[in-house]
Amino acid sequence: MAKKEHTITAEELDRRFDDGEDITEFLNLDQAFRPNLEQRRVNLDLPNWMIDSLDQEAKRVGVTRQSIMKVWMSERLKAEQVGTGQPM
Predict the structure, then answer these.
(1) Domains in the chain, number
(2) Is the pTM of this model over 0.70?
């Protein structure tokens, strides 16, 4: 079934959004993306004791090692940026 082509002005889109209406019919979600959230792979060599500690904490919290590392690094980076006044 072909998607219905329907356009409205930016002002109308803003009004509908502000009124809590569903505006998804006016969006092209096939090309949607979240800026600055693209992923890149990095390699990180860590001592065994650190990996063991990460694994213990990840198991305690119920997440993967990668998840706990991402959360902790994100928290630290945000804290550092708050201290320096730089935007994230």
Answers:
(1) 1
(2) no
